[in-house]
Design brief:
Distance between the termini: 89 Å
CATH superfamily of the largest domain: P-loop containing nucleotide triphosphate hydrolases
Bound molecules: thymidine-5'-diphosphate, magnesium ion
CATH class of the largest domain: Alpha Beta
CATH architecture of the largest domain: 3-Layer(aba) Sandwich
Structural class: alpha/beta
CATH topology of the largest domain: Rossmann fold
Number of helices: 11
Number of strands: 24
Helix content: 10-25%
Radius of gyration: 27 Å
Strand order of the largest sheet: 8-7-9-10-6-11-12-13-14
Strand content: 25-35%
């Protein structure tokens, strides 16, 4: 029998294992991402002739398993994202760009929880003095958090696998941890995976909640080990635009609660401050007076269970280039291309020779197709130079044939708009129901139901009463 190779090559981007080195990973097409790893021991192929397996017992779906206890940090923005508190024995991965504020957030969470539960903060990135300086800056020096600086997983496991272990353990970051039985350097896929595995196994056994911090590569995946996302119960991303003060904690996977929930924070001199009314923040510096410019539309969106109003800005201008520029911040560029194509093909707008810039104000990233209509409204508004009527929100999905499709949670969106003083809404027409007709709703927001994208464009064309005429530029 041929001897098994002692080495294998693991892609640091996607975790794929290759028997031979090559310049490019076959599974994710990344260049120079393969790193040699020496296998600890060779595993026999298949089950081999080892011991006979035990029979496994099956059970019914119903049983009286008690709900695991949850630990609330008394930070509503954080607790909502975790699905109502951290679960005993669960593992949470908090990913984000370096410098976005992960350590600051977790230091604050640790301090809040430490009053009620034993909490340990293990940092592999900063020395104890640095951590103390941060705690002092945050005004948290008196919180009974157990602090240490360590990177060897064997030491950490030995320390935590003892009576009186803490209820919450924070590891900052998983990329700095290493298992000494592996030869590869800390931060490689093998080290990150094995370290996480050991720590998660211990968390399940001893019943503490484990929070792992993971850095994100510039492509936006948690550095190399996307494998980590499968191993943990909850994946949270901490995001924010450089130059903006606010940060969004987003649940992308949660075995104990809804995904897609967001928590909004603002980075201040004294740490992260919770923002309980994000709409007011995202619309904060919007100019809603008489001098409002064309090209802006307010989108009534949903982030998880919460409505969020956000301004979408477009600039459509004749291009001096052969290939017009298309730039998008905060939205999907493929989706913008689709809206532009529908506006051209179905509504006859000549946008082909125009540069198009689209910006979601405030640094929020929108993923909902419901933003289509608001994007289209801002584009048409910029193109025609006619501003949208004041205090109007827009939402609806657009189909390729130019139809405006209904979206979920219309009532919640309208209620939020009404709460923030908006008086009008452009919404999809609900077919086959009397609901959705023009007229005031109980939220005191008068709605204009649109069936097709043409209906929206027509509002700008012929000076519909709902739309103010463009200011004359003589
Ligand atoms: P940090 O939590 O160290 O980021 P990460 O752990 O994600 O790498 O945050 C670092 C940034 O936050 C740094 O640029 C300084 C800023 N910051 C504040 O603005 N206010 C504060 O109170 C603290 C502690 C940090
Ligand atoms: Mg940090």
């Amino acid at each position: 029998m041929a001897k098994r190779p002692a080495s294998q090559y693991v892609c640091q981007e996607c975790g794929a294992v290759h028997p031979k080195w090559s310049g490019k990973c076959d599974s994710c097409d990344a260049w120079n991402s393969l790193v040699e790893e020496v296998q600890a021991e060779s595993v026999p192929k298949g089950l081999g002739a080892g011991r006979k397996g035990r029979a496994i017992e099956f059970v019914g779906l119903k049983g009286d398993t008690p709900q695991p206890p949850r630990w609330l940090a008394d930070m509503p923005e954080f607790d909502r994202v975790t699905g109502g508190g951290l679960v005993q024995g669960s593992a949470v991965l908090v990913g984000g760009d370096p410098g976005i504020g992960k350590s600051t957030l977790l230091m604050q969470v640790a301090a809040k929880l430490a009053g009620k539960h034993g909490t340990a903060y293990i940092s592999g990135e900063e020395a104890v003095e640095q951590l103390r300086l941060r705690a002092a800056r945050l005004g948290l020096s008196d919180a009974p958090v157990k602090l240490t600086s360590a990177t060897n997983v064997r030491d950490i496991v030995a320390t935590l696998d003892a009576p009186g272990a803490p209820d919450l353990v924070i590891i900052d970051s998983i990329q700095t941890m290493f298992v000494d039985s592996l030869e590869s350097a800390p931060g490689t896929v093998a080290q990150v995976r094995t370290s996480a595995q050991e720590l998660i196994r211990l968390a399940k056994r001893r019943g503490f909640a484990l929070i792992l911090v993971g850095h994100v590569t510039k492509e936006g995946t948690i550095a190399g080990p996307r494998v980590l996302e499968h191993m943990v119960d909850t994946v949270l991303y901490f995001e924010g635009e450089r130059g903006h003060q606010f940060r969004i904690l987003r649940a992308v996977k949660n075995r104990f609660g809804p995904a897609d929930e967001i928590g909004v924070f603002e980075m201040t001199d004294g740490g992260l401050k919770e923002i309980s009314n994000p709409s007011a923040l995202f619309l904060g510096d919007r100019d809603d007076g008489e001098g409002r410019e064309a090209g802006s539309a307010v989108f009534a969106g949903m982030e998880g269970s919460r409505p969020v109003l956000v301004e979408i800005q477009a600039l459509v201008a004749p291009s001096s280039l052969g290939t017009p520029r298309r730039a998008v911040v905060g939205w999907d560029s493929g989706r913008l291309a689709m809206i532009l194509a529908v506006l051209e093909a179905r509504c006859g707008l000549a946008l082909g020779a125009c540069d198009v810039y689209l910006n979601v104000a405030g640094g929020l990233r929108i993923g909902e197709p419901a933003a289509d209509l608001a994007v289209a409204a801002s584009l048409v508004s910029s193109h025609t130079g006619v501003p949208l009527p004041p205090e109007t929100v827009v939402f609806g999905e657009i189909g390729l044939s130019g139809e405006v499709r209904p979206v979920s949670r219309t009532d919640v969106r309208l209620k939020e708009a009404g709460k923030l003083g908006f008086t009008g809404a452009f919404v999809p027409k609900v077919r086959g129901k009397s609901k959705g007709k023009d007229g005031p709703t109980k939220e005191a927001v008068s709605i204009k139901a649109l069936d097709r994208l043409d209906d929206l464009v027509a509002l700008f064309d012929d000076g519909h009463p709902a739309v103010r005429p463009a200011r004359s530029v003589s």
